[in-house]
Amino acid sequence: MDAISLKRSNTILIIGVLIAFLYYPSIGFITFRGTGYTVNTLFISRLFIWLEVAILYFYATKVEQNDFLLWPEKKETFWFYPASFGALYLLTIGAGIASNIPLLFGHHDNRQIMLHMVAVLNKSWPLLIFAALTAGFTEELIFRGYLVPRLEMLFKNKHMPVITSSLMFGLIHFRYQSYSEVIFTTLVGVVFAIHYQWYRNIKILIFTHACIDLVSFLVFRLALAYHLPLK
Fold this sequence. Notes:
The protein has 231 residues and is mainly alpha-helical. Helices cover 77% and strands 0% of the residues.
């Protein structure tokens, strides 16, 4: 590939990376600006997130002229899935513990935005499940399936794609105005990105992510129902 073609190829990859990162917060700003969370805005915002996957799929196939998932799925034995699920979930719990670091410095997050969102989700079980499934499918397809391989092509090493995609993943969660949430999601992003590099299996990441979100929503739901403190 000559220098001009390489530059054009890198430019196309960079634009795709920026679309993947900037679309999500842009839609959130437009959807919730001045309205807060309602059943309708939450449902519509989830649809817009699915639209991002469609846009990136179109961009990958028509502009990049590549497959959306650059890395073919590896076939694994049955035991790979429960073992990976258990390991990923335990590491996620570890990330949750580490996310409390701000508390050591006397910083207490305001959980009102998250609590308000869950309070709205509580009004509709189908919406709660749809939100968890949407997070599992779309965020893994975008931040691991789409971004990690392309960042490897740009950086030409294994470490920066993990760091960059994880920071992007953490930063999009700053909409909850919680440093703990950003730390948690960044660390989860590191774990999931490394797993994807090693095993190149997006299905287990989608399933685990959806379970994590569903359990988190249910924990918040119980806390709200029984007036338990969430710190």
